[in-house]
Here is the input.
Amino acid sequence: MRASTADTVIFDFDGVLLRGDAFGLFLRRTAFAGARLPLAVAALVLLAPVATVPALRPWAARWVSRIGLVGRNGDELRAELERFGTNLGAEPGRMIEPGLRMIRSHLAAGDRVIVVTACEHTLARAVLDAIGLAEVELVASHIRGPRLIVHNHGATKMAQLTGQGVTPPWRVAYSDSLSDLPILDAAEQPVLVNATTREVTRARRLLGARLTTVTWLAGQGPGHPHHTAGDDRR
Here is the structure.
């Protein structure tokens, strides 16, 4: 039996549960390794100016992904992503312990927890399974062969949630990105993670007094103090 939408909690993935960009790490360490490296460098140089325009970033991301994955068999690629995700979940200092403690506390309370991320689905699922969060639902980007067919970023996150019957409001949402402002705005309690002063100011214009900010660092052990809801140190 699923919890009601009112008991739904949304977590971003990269920057909230995992330090860095998981799919970017896969491209750099695996897809763009060896003979593909010169092609990767050329692509990044050409696409860098495009990526500075927010509206064109999804287009640039699709092309970087396609260049890195072209020529790979679909089954082999999925196996590669699964292996990489499993190893990434075990990498020392990679996971953000305060985020993991928070997601586990929501699960223990019986909340419906959904990770909503721009990371590729197979990779994100492998990481979550490796760190003991197999029961967490996942809404992510999807590839078909070398093509990124769903880039789960910005407004697409809300559309995918709606398509799966998850409609606002939800109780809490955690994200480190202003591209997730629609998801944060749909939460009774929006939580912005590791934000700069400028980002907090922009988010507060929309979210007002509802906004909570927290600072979560990768590799913090269980005994390390961390900010909880209501703390705003920025």
Remarks:
- The radius of gyration is 18 Å.
- The chain is about 45% helix and 20% strand.
- The longest helix spans residues 74-89.
- The chain has a mean pLDDT of 83.
